[in-house]
Structure formats: structure tokens, C-alpha cells
Amino acid sequence: MTADPTIAVPELAQLTLPDVPEELRADLEAGRPVAWSEPLTIRTYEAETPSEYPMYLDQRVYQGSSGRVYPLPFTERIADEAHDRQWQAIHLENRYVRLVVLPELGGRIHIGYDKTTGYDFFYRNNVIKPALVGLAGPWISGGVEFNWPQHHRPATYLPVETALERGDDGSMTVWCADHDPFTRMAAHHGVRLRPDSTVVELAVRLHNRTSERQTFLWWANVAARVHDDYQSFFPEDVRYVADHARRAITAFPAADRPYYGVDYPALAEAHPGADRIDWYRNIPVPTSYMIVDSQQDFFGGYDHAAGAGFVHWAERRLSPGKKQWTWGDAPFGHAWDAQLTDGDGPYVELMAGVYTDNQPDFSWLLPGETKVFTQHWFPIPAIGPARQATPDAAVGITTGAGVEALFAVTSPQPDAVVRILRGGEVVESRTVAMVPGVPVSVTAPTLSGDDPEVAAELVDASGHLLVRWAPTRTTDEEPWVATEPPAPEEIASVEELYLTGLHLEQFRHPTRSPLAYWEEALRRDPGDVRTNLALASREHRAGSYAAALARVELALDRLTRRNANPADAEAYYLAGLILTRLGRDEEAERHLGKAGWDGTWAAAAGYELAASLSRRGRLRAALRVLDTLDGVVGHDSRRAVLRAVLLRRSDRTAEADALLRAELVAEPLNVAVRVLLGQPVAEDAGLLLDVALELRACGADDALHLFLRAAAAAPTDAGNLGPVAHYLAAQLLDRRGDSDGAARERAAARASDLTRAFPSGLDAHDALVAALEVDEGDAVAHFLLGMLLYSSGRRADAQHHWEAALELGLRDPVLLRNAALAAYAVAHDDGTAWRRYEEARALAPADARLLYEQDQLAARLGQSPAERLARLEPLAEVVLRRDDLTIEYLGLLIAEGRAAEALEILLSRPFHPWEGGEGRALATWDAAREALGLPLADPPASLGEARPRYTAPAPVRDDGTTDYFATSLPELLLFTRESAGDGV
């Protein structure tokens, strides 16, 4: 009989979890974990259809890095009313723990329930109620969200593929796989339970499927339901915590200075203990803190009221990141809580970073590189905040009248020994049978908790140490704090100029470009190798192949002037990629071969070389290259796919299939492998295109039918890839000499629905360029290529293509709007920008997004409030569909002496704030009341926000520049003027 996995939640019906299926009961009762798929009905506020307009938000400040979202469509509205919806759910359970994974929401863990204590150790949100907090719009609180390659994960509101796997040790794993919609990297995460263990294990494989080096981060975002008696705990060697980008620090757990605008020492003078920021109740404003320089592997949270909590454990060498985030225990934060739940109360996020310890803090993945790691969570019973933990056990320590150690285990431990020692000598000891969920204590009444020689241990019946606590010795030396880099002309050396630019690019800085630093470096030293390669890589990624090649050749000239075998062969590798794109295959192969002399680039260069040889029909040569890599360099599933293609083309099908089946053991959801084995895969255009491009790179014959399947696949919230798939098919048919078939595919592309067709990547770029080489009059190709180039920083080129599409007679609101953006931002042609918006609105007069953008442009062009109001007022029904446009409209009413009307509208509809846009509705409320001579008053709950007690640091300085360390910026950034030096 299992514990009932429900706990009463006030004011909200608890999710009803289904019983274990009858056919799995025997396994569960025997101690084996089980998993099954069964829908879960959850009250849901739907995210509305994403915008039809591409969002070029490169300078949007999001979590301290760029909030660019293209090519992902951006969702801007959430439904005001909820309904019951069935969500696909994977249920995973063993004797002690029950989990629910939601594949349609990024494969997040939605429920983590401790059956031994009846406690939800992860915050169980009983509704799906997104707020506009995510990178691409909607985001929900609760459970565990797995964030990569950026925070909050771009695919957090997109589906993943799943598979269930029974391990040889009896474990059960729910595998989830997605493809990053930006660069199409692949991630597998497996949620695993083992027999007779409370540990929730996460097994992760991150694979850079691309030919370019990529940046990424990984944060597992765990939510914990909180109240006045909830405490976050971190290792004892944590003496300081840092804000985003380490722009500020404070002592921990007692803050010793103002932090996020709150003077904690002053609060503690009036209310002792109010400076302890490990307690939710003491933090009155939205606050992040990330631990600094801990050498320990664990942290977690503890609910003193429930006598339960959880621990996260991961090896510190890979997982240094330990963070808490809260909206704050004050009306402002409670208003945000209400945006995300219907009654489940506040929560904190206790986040674990792998290959990162701050946000933003991106690491690198080499081309083809796979990184593998694990994270572990487990519930703890009434031991208090853990003072030390391992995957086997945790220990809490209390002092006062002696020293008491309270131990909890993650699996049954018969004849375990708990003991307290001093100076290595046992002072107190007990032998006891331990089980999960039941703490065991041992007390040494004569010892002092301040004694540095005291220790507490738990060993199993065989004498193996499970967990050991001893006091941690640390210093109070303050850690470093980040500073804004000087202007390029103020930096002394070319090396520092290069490194500063690299930092800005690696960390995806939203408001500072690396170009100014790199250009200054080349002004001083035109032949600097590192800077030329950095710019060449940037130009290559934007499709500027000739310019990129010229820079690489300049770098190679210096690099090999006296040394034909440089220590770093990146220049050869990059030259190989560029020459391949230019169709100069034999030259490319020579450069890739030389790049393979360097161990850093051997795997990536070897794959590219073998793929090129395969495309040219040199099968045995390609296999020989792979023979030098397999078993020597790191795992890259692309190599297995390429070898299988080569084997099949060499009539060695049985060998190929055996290789592919072995690859599925490592990556159960690898789409390319499954396609080659004839296994079913989702009819998802993005996945099908990924596989088609990978197989085309290998020289396989399977690519064409996959392009056609992708073209026929239905568009999703991730976008519409149909038109690009047709152009890719046309390019492939042209290469095969089938010009008639290619023409049919280009005609199909032109006839396609272009809604949310946002092309990206070099393969799409090359296919669109190829289409225009065949037919310069293809207006759709001009339109799509312009979108891709604008997102790549080639904005003048994008404007040229959009204007060409218009000259060819294509009329589309998205095209006209895009041309308007370029006219304003690139050409600084205000008249054309305004005219294009007028044309777009004539085609889509009821489009609220267009109306909002046009009004934003009107403000930038200096139009008076009266002019803007006169334009908006006849369209009030359209205006009121958007919160941001409504707020603008109300501001205009107030400016024109009609504050009473503004106040009436404020009270007539709900508003949904967005992260970074807090305060807009509240400021309008205050302005309306002030204009009417009414006293300051708290806003109604329908405004979605409350008055903050403290003033947050302003993201924009008094001189109008953006704070280098700003973590959010609410302004619309589509209308940013570009200077002649901007762009790639």
C-alpha cells in the first residue's frame, strides 16, 4: 500500500494522480521502479498563438544576456480564463518516491513526492498558469525545469520526444530529447529512479551537432514551495554570494551590506535575524544570489514546519553552480506569485548549474562534442538543514547542550553505525537499521559544537563511509566583483582587446558588441591571429564567406610564417568550413586534414573531412579517416551515422545496422539513427530537417524524402519550416541535375503558407542564395533571405532583399513591417519606415501588434500625444487586445486630460506583467489618480502587480545609456538606430 500522493492545498483542487496500472503493481511491490504514460488533467491557462512577426531582440536584456529569440516565434499573450486540459504525462514511481514528467513542456519534472513523509519536495503547482517570463514568452513555475543552452530554456514550452528504459540494475529511466531551436544542438536528459532508493537521478547528454563551436549553460531550476519557516541551505564553506554577473556580493547567510537595494544590516538592527537571507521571509524584493567558490557538492532547502526538505548533489568539479531566486516575500512578489498559480502560494528556485556558476556564465562546446554528467536530488526527513550530504545520506547537526547528529539515508541500511568523534576517537556510537524517511540521531552531550576536532559519521554494515560532517575552515577574504570593461581606446594591449571582445561574445552581452574591441585590436595590429579568427568565425556564421576566408588567410599567413605546424589549428579548421561552403571541396579537405594534427580540433576536422570524402564518393578514404578517430577521441553520434552511411553504400548493411543499434544504447532518442533504422519519429519539421541535413552532409540518398516530409509537416509553435524545406529540396535536386524537379520545389515554396516561416542557419542561407541565383525574380526567396540576414546582423543586405521583394510585387504585412524596421534602423529613412507601416496596416487593419509597433515608431518620430491618440482612439477595440498598447493608450488619455477614462479602463480588464516590464501598469494607475487629484492608493489585483517597497537599480542611467550589468530592460528594442559600423 503506497502513501496517498496528495496533500491538501487551500483554495485549489489537488491534482489527482492515477493509480499504478495493474500490470505494474507486482514490480512496484517487489521494490522495482515502474514507469508508464497516462494523461494528467490539469487546470490550464493556455498560451495564445505566437506572433506572426519575427522578433529581432538581440539587444533585449534577459537574465543579463541577450534575449534574442529569432527564429523562434514569440508568444505575447496568455489566456485570462482557464480550462481543464489533458497533458501527456510520464509517471515514474518506486517504493519511496513518485514523479511526474510532462513531455509537452520541455520534459520538466512537474511533481516530486516523498511517499515516506507525504511531502512534495518539489513545488507542486496544481495549475498550468504561464506568465510572460520565458525567453520565448510563456513560462510556468513549479517542479524542475532543465535550462539549456540559455536561461529560461527556449524550448521550455515546446514538446520533447520520450522513451522508457529499464536498466540492467533494475532502474527505470524516462528519456527526454529535444533539439535546441536556435543552433539545433541536441540534448538528452534522463529522469531515473533505482530500486529501493529515494534518489532522483538526472543523466544528461549535451551534443553539439553543428560544425561550429557553440556556447551554452545548464541550470536545473528546482522550485520549492515556501513560507515563513522555509530555509535554503548551502555548504558551510559558503561565506559570500553574488548577484548576476558578479556585479555585487554580500556575506552569507547574514547579509552584511545593502543588496538589491535592501539595507539588511539596518533591518537587523530593528529586527534581529532579518539579515539572514537563507530564510524566504527575510527577502522583501526579487532577489538572486549565487554561491561563490564553494568546494562542496551539495545544497538544498528545508521546510521547518513540515520537517522535510530536499538535497541536490552533484560533483563540484562539473557542477559549481548553486543559486536561490525569489520574487520576494512582499506584496510585489506575491502579485507575481498570483500570476503563476491559482492558490499554491509562493516558491523559491534552488537552481543547480553545471559547467557554470553564475548567470550569465556560458561555457563552450566544440563541434561534435558531447558532454555527459549527472545530477541527483533526494528528499530528507526531519534532520534540519543538511550540513553535509552525499548520494547515500545526509546529516544535520544541532548544538547547544552538546552535539546531536541526525542522519537520513537514501536506501535501506541494515546494521548502520552512526557515531560522533573527537580527534578521530569515537565518543558516541549506535548501530541501527536505517530506512529512508526515518531519521536516526546520536548525541554527545559533553562536546561543544565549536570544537574544531568534532566530526559525525555514518557507515554501513561493511564499514563503508556514507556521509561525514566536520567543521569547515574558511577565510573571510572577499571574492572578486566584476567591473565594466573600459572603452576600446582605453585598453592598453591588443590581447586584452581580443579577450574583452571574446567575453562579450561568449556571454552573449545584450548591449555591448565585441566588434568595437576587435576592430580596435586590428587597427593596432591588422595581422593579429586571434582577432582575425574571431571576426572570421562571426562572418562565416553570417554567411559572409568571402570576407571570412580573407581573414582566415591573413591569420594563417602570420601563424605559419615561421612554424608550419602551429600549436592551435583552429585557423585550418575554419578555413575548411568556409571553403566547403564555397564549393572548393578539395582545398577544404587539405585544410581539414591539417587541422586534424591538433588534438583539440582532430575530432571535428576528422568528421568534416570524412563527410566531404563521402559526398565525393571516396568511401574507403572516408572510412580510413573515421578509423583514426573512433575509440580515440570523444563520442560524437554524427560519426556513427556517417560510418553507417558509408557501410551501407559499401554493401555492408548488417554492419551498419549493428552499429546503429549500439548507438541507440547511448542515445535512445537519436533521431538520425532511428530514421536510418526505419524506426518511427515524430512528424516534426525541425527534427526532420535536422536529420535530412545530417544525412545530406554524409552523402546519403535519404535526404530528399526527409526534406519533402519536413515540407509537408504541420507548422508548430516552434515555427513554419515548410518553405525552407522546399528550397532545400530544390537545391539538392539541382545538384543532382534534376532542374525540373528543383523548379517544382521552388514553385511549391513560393506557394507555401509563409506564416511564421523564419529561416535560420547556413544551410537555409545557402539554399535561398542558390534559389536567387537560378531566379532573381523569386520574391519569396528575397523575403525569407532578408529575415535570415537581418537576424545574422547583415541588416543592410536584409533591407536590400526586402525592398527587392516589394519591387517584385509581393505584398505581405510581415514583409512590409520588416522593411519598415530596416528603413528606420539601418537606412535612417523615417519617411519610408512610416509609409511601410501604413501599407502593412492597410493589409492587416485589425493587427494589434502592427498598431503597437507603429505607435512606438510614432513616439520615436516625435509625434505629439494628441496625434497618437487620434490615431488609436478609433481603433480602441484593437488597442485593448494588448496590455502594452493599452498602457500606451492610457498614458495618452492622461496626457490629454482624460484621466477619468484611463482609470475606468484600468479597472475594467486584467493585466499580465512581464519580467522586466514590471511597474508599467502601476505607474499608469498612479498617474491617472494623480491627474484626478486622488490620493496614492494600492492598485487592484487585476493590474497584476503591487507597489514595491524598495527601488530596484535602474537599467538605464541618467545619461540614457544602459547599465552594463542590467539584467532586464523592458523597452521595445526593435527601433534601435544602427551606425555604419554596426553589424557583422
From TrEMBL:
Residues 69-380 form the DUF5107 domain. Signal peptide: none annotated. Pfam families: DUF5107. It comes from Cnuibacter physcomitrellae. It comes from the Bacteria. InterPro entries: DUF5107 (IPR033396), TPR-like_helical_dom_sf (IPR011990). This is DUF5107 domain-containing protein. SUPFAM superfamilies: TPR-like.
